[in-house]
Amino acid sequence: MRIWVRGQRTELSDQLRDVVHRRARFAMGRFAGAIRTVSLLLTESGEAACHARIRCTVRVRLARGKRVRVVHAGGDVSTAVDAALERAAGEVQRRLELERRGFATGDAVSHRGDGH
């Protein structure tokens, strides 16, 4: 399982990148055999008055080619990352359970956030 962490319109320090990487490995680790890649994109809104300043997009590519995409907006990086990873792990778990039961599934997309 490969994990990528990037920032858009925001500077990510090496320390922050490492923290986000560890959180992603912890959240998705139990599915490591079924996941090819986990990609996190952190975007700052740029609007000072915006309640949800940070948006975290998590994209998971499963070993069988299916994809899960979750977007969560929060007031800070920690909130956005933790909520997005928690929801992404739930989507991956549901997807794998459906596949195990023999149901065909498409790609999953989920959006949620504070102030949206």
The arrangement of helices and strands along the chain is: EHEEEHE
Task: Determine the mean pLDDT.
Answer: 86
First-last Cα distance: 32 Å
**CATH superfamily annotation:** Ribosome hibernation promotion factor-like
Number of domains: 1
CATH topology: Double Stranded RNA Binding Domain
Largest sheet: 5 strands, mixed
Structural class: alpha/beta
Topology:
Elements: E1 2-8, H1 14-28, E2 35-44, E3 54-62, E4 67-74, H2 77-100, E5 108-113
Parallel strand pairs: 1-2, 4-5
Antiparallel strand pairs: 2-3, 3-4
Helix pairs in contact: 1-2
Describe the structure.
Helix content is 34%, strand content 34%. It is of the alpha/beta class. It has a five-stranded mixed beta sheet with strand order 1-2-3-4-5, covered by helices on one side. Strand 3 (54-62) and strand 4 form a beta hairpin. Helix 1 (14-28) runs parallel beside helix 2 (77-100).
Summarize the structure.
The chain has 116 residues and is of the alpha/beta class. The protein has a single domain, classed as Double Stranded RNA Binding Domain (2-Layer Sandwich), CATH 3.30.160. The chain contains 2 helices and 5 strands; from the N terminus they run E-H-E-E-E-H-E.
